[in-house]
Write a structure and sequence with these properties.
Blueprint (H helix, E strand, L loop, with lengths): L2 H26 L3 H26 L4 H21 L6 H23 L4 E6 L10 H9 L3 E5 L4 E4 L5 E5 L19 H4 L3 E4 L10 E3 L5 H4 L5 E4 L17 H5 L2 E4 L17 E3 L3 H11 L6 H7 L8 E6 L2 H6 L1 H15 L5 E6 L6 H10 L1 H5 L3 E3 L15 H8 L1 E2 L2 E2 L2 E4 L5 E3 L22
Helix pairs in contact: 1-2, 1-4, 2-3, 3-4
């Protein structure tokens, strides 16, 4: 039985106790007709309550037997009043009713276990990795009913009005059971816990989840709203992420480590923050155990003409940098691509911003046609092939273990977007004169 349902059941039993007091008062006043009517109402109420318990716990549950004995006692008292056995019997009737109802109440408290309902509300399938390991743990917990409910979102027009609506229900792993958002009624089900990974409500510049799923609205229907960031970082955080609408309504915000608390607005209470890591790292480590084969289109780009492996560089770009200063963003990308163009020993793996929209991603590709056609560049649409972020640990492990994609080891990870940076401690990395990448501030190289 759900926690809320158990609480409501106990509240109903409390109402029956109150009805017993009123029945006793009516008997003392010799208002026998009133007492009989109230006994009938208790009988009807108890029958409905018993059916609700049976539906939740199954036929034959011990609480049902106690409820049946209580109903039998109600009927017996009704019959005795009807034949006129009043007077000194009033106290005996009250004790009998109270005894049977207490048996029902104790059975509800002790024999009915609570099962939590936990719902996950992803909006982009490419960001599912930020919730996945928590969902899988909840699904395996016998005390939980876990639901994955992909929610709709809109592209935003230039005037910030809603454009085309999307709802991404395809592309999830086979072990994830999808529930249609139109069939999951938050108002009725009132889940015990809601997990989200979109913190923006109506404040995003590119997309917006359906207003029904803004954090400000979700909080009305749950006791526990948890935000897990859709991103992870090797250190530091964008200033724009320090205070988002969802933070005000979330009961908890999951962060990678205690150090990340400092990047959030200082006015947010410390009790909100849970330094538990990121499910994205769980996905990376799981994939590293069983890396899939690279797509066929990648193989020639990953292989040198002499048959050896090219050195693989992972280039990650963010939506903030693209929107804040598109011209310089594209110039910086042109510079990065130029550094790799024609390099026999290196391959660039570029991850476009997943939230930028197809038109922006492919606009960037159109500016430099040689990107998608270069023999040593891999270009992917959205997050279909990309999306793992860095584990905040030593750079050697960061380079050699964490950045694996489709069975390929990324030797160097380059972060682009709002701030450019390169992470590499490899002895054979290109020198500055050979096109080494370096970041030197927001939007500049």
């Amino acid at each position: 039985m759900r926690k809320a349902q158990k609480r409501e059941t106990l509240e109903c039993i409390s109402s029956l106790h109150q009805a017993h007091e009123e029945i006793r008062a009516a008997l003392r006043q010799k208002e026998y007709e009133t007492a009989r009517n109230m006994l009938c109402e208790c009988q009807e109420f108890a029958t409905v309550l018993g059916e609700s318990i049976e539906k939740a716990e199954g036929e034959g549950h011990s609480t049902i037997a106690h409820m049946e004995r209580y109903c039998e006692t109600l009927f017996q008292v009704f019959k005795e009043i009807e034949i006129g056995a009043g007077g000194s019997s009033e106290h005996k009737w009250y004790k009998s009713l109270r005894k049977q109802l207490l048996a029902v109440e104790n059975s509800v408290k002790n024999d009915i276990s609570v099962k939590k309902e936990v719902v996950f509300l992803p909006y982009k399938v490419s960001m599912w990795d930020s919730l996945e390991s928590v969902y899988l743990a909840a699904r395996e917990d016998p005390a939980c009913d876990a639901y994955c409910v992909p929610i709709p979102y809109y592209d935003l027009k230039v005037d910030h009005s809603f454009g085309r609506m999307h709802c991404e229900t395809a592309g999830y792993p086979e072990n994830v059971e999808i529930t249609d958002w139109q069939e999951y009624n938050l108002e009725e089900r009132k889940p015990d816990v809601i997990y989200i990974h979109n913190p923006y409500d109506g404040c995003n510049l590119v997309t917006s989840v359906h207003p029904r799923f803004y954090a400000s609205h979700l909080k009305k229907f749950t006791d526990l709203l948890v935000y897990i960031p859709y991103y992870s970082t090797a250190g530091g955080m964008c200033e724009a992420q320090s205070l988002c609408p969802a933070y005000l309504y979330a009961d908890y915000i999951v962060i990678q480590s205690p150090a990340f608390r400092a990047y959030f607005d200082r006015n947010l209470p410390d009790r909100k923050f849970l330094p538990l890591g990121s499910p994205k790292f769980d996905r990376v480590m799981e994939r590293c155990k069983h890396p899939p084969e690279p797509p066929a289109a990648w193989r020639s780009k990953l292989t040198r003409k002499d048959g050896g492996r090219r050195r693989l560089f992972f280039y990650n770009t963010s939506i903030n940098g693209m929107l804040a200063d598109t011209e310089h963003f594209l110039q910086k990308m042109a510079y990065v691509f130029t550094c790799f163009e024609g390099r026999e020993e290196a391959c660039l793996l570029w991850r476009p911003p997943s939230a930028a929209g197809d038109h922006l991603c492919f606009h960037a590709a159109a500016v430099w046609p040689h990107v998608s056609g270069a023999e040593n560049a891999v270009f992917g649409k959205g997050d279909r092939y990309f999306g793992y972020h860095a584990r905040p640990c030593g750079l050697d492990r960061f380079e050699r273990r964490v950045y694996r994609r489709h069975g390929n080891q990324c030797h160097v990870a380059v972060r682009g977007g709002g701030e450019a940076a390169v992470y590499s401690r490899s002895k054979d990395a290109p020198s500055a004169g050979e096109g080494r990448l370096a970041g030197s501030g927001k939007g500049r190289l």
